[in-house]
UniProtKB/TrEMBL annotation:
Lineage: Bacteria, Pseudomonadati, Atribacterota, Candidatus Phoenicimicrobiia, Candidatus Pheonicimicrobiales
Domain 4Fe-4S ferredoxin-type: 2-31, 32-62
UniProt entry keywords in alphabetical sequence: Iron, Iron-sulfur, Metal-binding
Family matches, as PANTHER family: FERREDOXIN SUBUNIT OF PYRUVATE:FLAVODOXIN OXIDOREDUCTASE-RELATED, IRON-SULFUR-BINDING PROTEIN
Protein name per UniProt: 2-ketoglutarate ferredoxin oxidoreductase subunit delta
InterPro entries: 4Fe4S_Fe-S-bd, 4Fe4S_Fe_S_CS
Pfam annotation, one family: Fer4_7
Length: 64
């Protein structure tokens, strides 16, 4: 299981995480913040977390 958390105080809706996700697992929500489009597509690579210039997205893997 894993959690994908967006810190809305820091996220500036730049879409870098969405554009860089190699699995196309992210999309925008109705407010323009990133969210998972399909949890099954996410490989937990953490590229979104590593590339966010504002440290606003976190991928936390819980268990296996
Ligand atoms: S890269 Fe960071 S600041 Fe930009 S949309 Fe994604 S979470 Fe928000
Ligand atoms: S962890 Fe990787 S596959 Fe999952 S949303 Fe982030 S960039 Fe995409």
């Amino acid at each position: 299981m894993f959690l994908l958390t967006i810190n809305k105080k820091w996220c500036k809706k730049c879409n870098i995480c969405i554009d860089l996700c190699p699995s196309n697992a992210l999309t925008s929500d109705e407010e323009g913040y990133p969210k998972l489009a399909d949890e099954k597509l996410c490989t937990r690579c953490k590229l979104c977390e590593l590339r966010c210039p504002d440290l606003a997205i976190e991928v936390e893997v819980i268990g296996k």
